[in-house]
Amino acid sequence: MSVPSTALTSRRFTVLRQRPESGQERPSYLHRTLSLLAVLSLFQGMADAIRSHALANHKVLVLLLVLYASMVLLAVLALTVRRQRALVRVDLAVLLAGFLRFAAIFVGSVGSSQRPYQDDEGPLVTLAARALAAGGHVYGRHWPHFAQQFGVGTTPLMNGRFADTFSYPPLSALLAAPFVSSLPSWVPLLGLFAFAALSATALFMFRTLPVQLRPAATLVCFGMSWYFFYVRNGYPVFLALPFLAVAVHRWTRTGAGGVLGRRGVLSALCLGIAASAHQLGWFLAPFLLLGILLARRGELPWRGALLVTGRWAAIALGTFLLVNLPFMIRDGGAWVSGIGSVLTQHATPQGLGAIDISYYLTSGSGNLAMYSYAAALLLAATLVALLVYPRRLAPALALLPWPAFLLAPRSPETYFVLLAPLWLIAFASCPQEDYQGLRQWRPRLLADRRLRVALPALLAVPALLCLAVAVASPVPLRMDISAVRTTTAAGKGSSAVTALTVRLTNTSDAVLTPQFASSSSAWTSFDWRVESGPSMLAPGGSGSYRLIRRGNPSGGSGSTYLRVFTDDPQTLTSAVIPTAGASAAKP
C-alpha cells in the first residue's frame, strides 16, 4: 500500500525534530574544529614537562606519557566520530585529559625540596590564615620578613617600602585557616584551592555552554599554559572565578518576571562570595547590576524592575557583609584599609598599558596619579556607555570593566585576563534575543543621531585629558650620574652595575623624598641602599647620593636605567646609566 507524500514529509520532519534530542545528528564542522583546537591546546608544554620529569619523578612521567598518547587518539576521534553524542563524550574525555595534565604538572612542581610559592600572594594569605587560626588580627598586621621566610619577591611601593600586609577580602584566609597548621610547610595550599576553583569553573562551563561550544571549557581553562603560574602560586582571584561564573551565567534572565527564584538568589549569593574573595568582583558588580536592571526594565515598569534588582543587590551585599562581619568587628578600621589597600597603597608602576609610555618611552612623569584618575574616569565612562548603548555592549558585559585598567599606573593585566572564562560564559549563556530586549535610555539630549554617534568619544575625553597630563608632566628631578662601578660575571662576559654616585636637583615646587631602583629589562630591581645623601629635597634643592647594590645582580646585555620614584607627589624620573668611566645627565 502506498503512503501519501504528506505523511512522508510529516514523518521526515518528526525525525528531524527528534534528532537534536537524541544526539544522533552529525556534528557540525564548527564543533569538530573547536574539539580539535581543545586537544591541540593541551600539547603546549607537554614535551618539556615529560623531559623535565624523565628522571625526577617516574610516576608523573608515566602519567604524562599516557596522556600524550591519549591526546593523539582523542584528536583522531574528534575528527572521525559520526554522531553528536559521541563527540560530546570525546569533549568530556578531553576535559578530563586537561585536568589530569594540569594536575600532573602541578604535582611535579611540588615537593619538600621546592619552595611552596614563587610570588608574594600565597605567602601573605598563608600568614593571614595562620594568624586567624591562632586567634590574632588579620588586617593591619605587618609581616616585614615574609619575603626571606618564603624566598619570594615583593610588591614595592612608591615610598620605598613593600606590601607586607594581607590586602585581600578574607575568604582565602578563611578557607586556608583550618589547614595551615596540619599540612607540611612546602605544600602550596593556596595553589590547591586555586586549582580546585579553576577545575570547578571548567566543569561549570562544560555543563552550561551550548553543546558546540563545550570544548572551549578545556581550551580556556586548561589549554592556556600561562594559567599554570598563577594557579600554582595560589592567586586569590581564582577563588572568585567559579562564583563569578555562576553570577554572570544567563544574567539577562535574572529576576525575569519580577521574581528572583532560586537561580536569582544563587546568583546574588555567588556574587557576594566572589566579592569576599578578590576585589575584581567589586568592579564587575556595577556592570552586572546595571545590566540586570536594564534587562528587567525591558519587560517591567520601573518600580518592578527596581524592586527585583534591589533584592538581588541586597542579597549580594548582605552575603559580602556576612562573610566579612567577624573581621569588621575584630579589626575595625584596619579591615577597611586592608581590603582597600590595593587601590590606595601606591604600588610602583608595572604592567602592560598606558604607563609604559612614561616607563619606557620617555624620561618619566611628574604626575603619575593622573594615570589613576584616567582609569577611574574611563571606568565610569564605560558604565555610562552601557547605560546608553545596552543592546550593543551587553554581549561584552563581563569584559567591559577591564579596558579601563590599561590606563592604571599598575595595570593588573594578568589579573583580569585570568577572568577570561567569564567573557565566554556571560556571552554564550544568554539568548541573543535577550540583548535586543534591554531597555535603552534615550533622553532628549540624545535625540540627535549625530550626538549619539559622537557620545562614546565624548565620554572618553576626560580620561584622555588625564592621560595627556600624566604623559606630558615634566619629570621633577634633574639627574647627573657621575660615577659607576660594575662587576663582570665570571665566564659570562656580561657586567652589572653595583654602585652609583648620583646628583639630583629638584626642579619642582614640592618637597620630594627620592627612592631608587634600576632596570635592565621589563622587571625593576629595588635592591639599592643609599649609603649617603639627603632623605628629602626641597624645591630647587640638590643632593649627591652614593648608591650601593645589595646582593649579587645578574648582568644584562642592554642598557640599564636608573629609576627615581617619589610617593607624595607620585613621580618617576628615569635615566640611562652610562658605562663605567662615562657620565650622563638627563632632565
UniProtKB/TrEMBL annotation:
Name the chain's protein. Integral membrane protein
- Source organism per UniProt: Streptacidiphilus jeojiensis
**What residue intervals traverse the membrane?**
59-80, 92-111, 186-206, 235-252, 264-294, 300-323, 368-389, 451-472
Keywords for this entry?
Membrane, Transmembrane, Transmembrane helix
Keyword check for GTP-binding? no
Does the record carry Amino-acid biosynthesis as a key word? no
